[in-house]
Structures are given as C-alpha cells and as structure tokens.
Amino acid sequence: MATTTKSNEKATPKANTKKTGSKPTEKTGKMENSEFHEFFVDELKDIYWAEKHLVKALPKMKKAATSPELANAFEKHTEETNTHIATLEQVFSLLEEKPQAKKCDAMDGLLKEADGIIEDTDAGTMIRDAGLILAAQKVEHYEIATYGTLVVFAQNMGHTKVAELLQFTLDNEKETDAALTEVAESFINEEAAAE
Hints:
With about 200 residues, the chain is an all-alpha fold.
C-alpha cells in the first residue's frame, strides 16, 4: 500500500476526478459518487431493515418453539442480530452515511412465512419446531447471500474495514445456519416425522 499512495495522482485516474486525499487504509478509488457505490449503500439499507425486523420477529419464534434447544437457539440469534445491527451502523459510519433502513421485501416475505408456519401448526409439536427451523434457515440463507455479495462489493471498492466487518457478520450467519441444522438433525426432524 505504501507504494500506491505516492503515485496515485498518475496511476489511478478515477481517484483524481473527485477527491484527491484518501485515507491510507483504503484504496484511492472509493467511488463515493458512483452508481455502484450508491447501489451498495442502498443494499446496506435493505439488509439494515431486514436485521431490524428480524430482531423483532425472533422473540415470537422463540415463544412458539416447543423444544428448549430451539428456543435457546432463537434467543442466541436475537443477541447476534442486535450485534449485526450495531455492525451495520458502524459500516454506515465508516462510509459517512446515515444509518437508514429501506424496506426489504424479501425479509418481509420470509417473516410473514414464519408467522404462517406458527399459525398453521399446532403448539407443542415438533412439526412446529421443524417448520420454525425451516423458516429460520430460509432467513439465514437470504442473509448469507446478501452479506456474501456485500463483502465482495466492499472489497472491489477498496472499503477494506467495511469488508472485514461484513465478513464477520457473514461468518456468524453461516454458524447460525449450521447450529439450526444441528438442532433439526439431533432430534426434531425425527420426532416431527413420528407425530
């Protein structure tokens, strides 16, 4: 990185079209005013909305769960989701953007589906727990896809610290997905099939 900071005036034409002084920990072509940067920020607003609404839905899923193991997983996920929200707020700050939420239609639909599973299954059954895990893993897979892409976007724009923060959240989402699979396979799916 030390070699690029001295010669960035000639070597990177993108950098000298807008701002000439970039932070030493970032690439010079941050593209704050580019369409790609705007798209990136828009997608951050989308996942910010998703996380803020998920954190409200998880306690309902915990309450609906039959097994203590699943209830504990939802409680842990609630705590982690609060951390994800704080991390996104840090990302917005690093990008000098106001933390704003934009309705995420995908998460809205996934959370409505989770509500439907609760309504369509009997309380106290492993069928409900299996359905809740299904709903939660759909959410996790959406988040994994989103954070995975956002990490790559951040890397391509030279937002190194932002990419690191988003990667931490991505890794956590993958761990949560694996933990839900473990709960499902340990006994819930088998007991649901027997009901």
